[in-house]
Design goal:
By secondary structure, the protein is of the alpha/beta class. The protein folds into 2 domains: 3-139 and 260-305, Rossmann fold (3-Layer(aba) Sandwich), CATH 3.40.50.450; 141-257, Phosphofructokinase domain (Rossmann fold, 3-Layer(aba) Sandwich). Helix content is 43%, strand content 18%. The chain has 11 helices and 11 strands. It has helices at 16-29, 40-46, 79-91, 103-116, 140-161, 176-184, 199-211, 229-240, 262-280, 300-305, 312-321, and strands spanning 3-8, 33-37, 49-52, 96-101, 120-124, 164-169, 189-191, 217-222, 246-250, 286-291, 294-299. A 7-stranded mixed sheet has the order 3-2-1-4-5-10-11, sandwiched between helices. Strands 7-8-6-9 form a 4-stranded parallel sheet, with helices on both faces. The longest helix is centred in the middle third of the chain and has 22 residues, at 140-161. The chain is elongated. The N and C termini lie far apart (57 Å). The mean pLDDT is 95.
């Protein structure tokens, strides 16, 4: 293992730059040549690959987004596209690849390894925290903190006006962000893709709050696979409880941006270095994650084919603390 390449793919997540930094400086420490690929899989196909050095990643640790940029690439989903990418890597004598991203990124890496047998390592970088094989993904903690900052502000106006606020958070088809945001934000209820919570349940929660003489409510909604779902839920509730002042706030992509939290910086740095060392140790077709604060390796296929369950203890917390 003499030359490795690193890229980011899919949705950006706070902490990706910290991870790139760790990969680059880890490679330099072990006297490996390290190359950066711009725009993910598109850059592999377009040969947008350049040498990186230690000072290439100076002053990026605290920055959101990704210095290597990201892009969707349908061409890489074809055998012809993957062959172009392989030829560009072979031309540069690159021995291994590190991809930072989510399930789509890992599906691409898995197919690439199967066809060309070049060692690949995945690092879980997605705010959704929906990757099997790690307790936390890079960007998740920052996204939750961003959501909590917004919920705290919404709580002020909800309290002042006695309103019911539906706050929709990201997470694709996963409820991990919503669940932790509900606990940290003191929500009265949370709607999760993994649970069959519906508008009727929410109406019952609100009526129970009214009996307890609560003057306002915060309800967190996971976007599922259709952003804006909270609007439909709020309309049903409004028709049933016409005397209540009901508002909706969709946080959207604000959760992806901004400085990474301390936890995400440390997680990203830990996983970045571990991926470099894993390639050197002969790992291939794996994702590196952290479970119970210990480094673990999962096959790429497992990482995107197995479902990561919600923490049942956290579900219990929401129910008990919302009284």
């Amino acid at each position: 293992m003499k030359r490795i390449a690193v890229f980011t793919s899919g949705g950006d997540a706070p902490g990706m730059n910290a991870c790139i930094r760790a990969v680059v400086r880890g490679a330099v420490y072990y006297n490996l040549e390290i190359y950066g690929v711009n725009h993910g899989y598109k850059g592999l196909i377009d040969d947008d690959i350049h040498r990186l050095h230690s000072n290439s990643v100076s002053n990026i640790l605290q920055k959101g987004g990704t210095m290597l940029k990201s892009a969707r690439c349908d061409e890489f989903k074809t055998k012809e596209g993957r062959k172009k990418a392989y030829q560009n890597l072979k031309k540069r004598k690159i021995d291994g690849i590190i991809g930072i991203g989510g399930d789509g990124t890992f599906k691409g890496l898995s197919s690439f390894f199967e066809e060309f047998k070049i060692p690949v390592m995945g690092i879980p970088g997605t705010i959704d925290n929906d990757i099997f094989g790690t307790d936390f993904t890079i960007g998740y903690d920052s996204a939750v903190n961003t959501a909590l900052d917004a919920i705290d502000k919404i709580r002020d106006t909800a309290d002042s006006h006695g309103r019911i606020f539906f706050v929709e958070v990201m997470g694709k088809d996963s409820g991990h962000i919503a669940l932790r945001s509900a606990i940290g934000g003191g929500a009265e209820a949370v709607i999760l893709p993994e649970k069959n919570t519906n508008a009727t349940d929410i109406i019952n929660y609100i009526r129970e709050d009214m009996r307890r003489e609560k003057t306002f409510s915060i309800i967190i909604v996971a976007e599922k696979d259709s952003p804006g779902i909270s609007i439909g839920v709020a309309e049903v509730v409004r028709k049933t409880l016409p005397d209540k002042d009901i508002r909706v706030t969709i946080l959207g992509h604000i959760q992806r941006g901004g400085k990474p939290s301390g936890m995400d910086r440390i997680l990203a740095s830990t996983l970045g270095l571990a991926a470099v060392e894993a390639l050197m140790d002969g790992h291939k077709d794996n994702m590196v994650g952290l479970i119970n604060n210990e480094l673990v390796f999962t096959t790429l296929k497992e990482s995107f084919s197995k479902v990561k369950p919600l923490n049942t203890d956290l579900l219990r917390l929401v129910k008990i603390l919302s009284i």
